[in-house]
Amino acid sequence: MERRRIPYRIELKGGKTYFWCRCGRSGTQPLCDGSHKGTGTEPLPYKSPVDLTVAFCGCKQTRNPPFCDGSHTHCAQITTQAV
Ligand code: FES
């Protein structure tokens, strides 16, 4: 499972729907690449109302998906490498 202790800063386009990876298998984190097939997990769609820059969760422990809520500060044994 691909997780990291820091969020992903990404620029969203207004009106576009993004699919946040919930399973952690995607090779294009934090977004889904279809690798969840067969896991029983589906990505979380998020439609941005406007152009904006956000922090999407990378540790998959957020209580406010797809956004980082700081939960990564309590995660252990996950990578700290920037992607
Ligand atoms: S690859 Fe993880 S939810 Fe799609």
Draw up the topology in text.
Blueprint: E1 8-12, E2 17-20, E3 44-47, E4 52-56
Antiparallel strand pairs: 1-4, 2-3
Bound molecules: FE2/S2 (inorganic) cluster.
Residues 21-23, 25-26, 32-36, 41, 43 line the site of FE2/S2 (inorganic) cluster.
Distance between the termini: 14 Å
Strand-residue proportion:
15-25%
Tell me roughly what share of residues is in helical segments.
Answer: under 10%
Largest sheet: number of strands, sense, barrel closure: 2 strands, antiparallel
**How many distinct folded domains?**
1
Query: Can you write the helix and strand succession as a string?
Result: EEEE
Radius of gyration: 12 Å
Mean pLDDT: 89
User: SS-based structural class?
Assistant: mainly beta
Overall morphology: globular
Helices, by number, come to 0
Point out poorly predicted stretches. Answer: none
Strand order of the largest sheet: 1-4
Bound molecules: FE2/S2 (inorganic) cluster
Number of strands: 4
Feature tags:
binds FE2/S2 (inorganic) cluster; 83 residues; mainly beta; two-stranded antiparallel sheet; 4 strands
Describe this structure in words.
By secondary structure, the chain is mostly beta strands. It has one domain. Helix content is about 0%, strand content about 20%. The protein has strands spanning about 10, 15-20, 45, 50-55. The chain has a two-stranded antiparallel sheet. It has a two-stranded antiparallel ribbon with strand order 2-3. The radius of gyration is 12 Å and the shape is globular. The two termini are about 15 Å apart. FE2/S2 (inorganic) cluster binds near residues 32, 36 and 43. FE2/S2 (inorganic) cluster binds near residues 22, 32, 41 and 43.
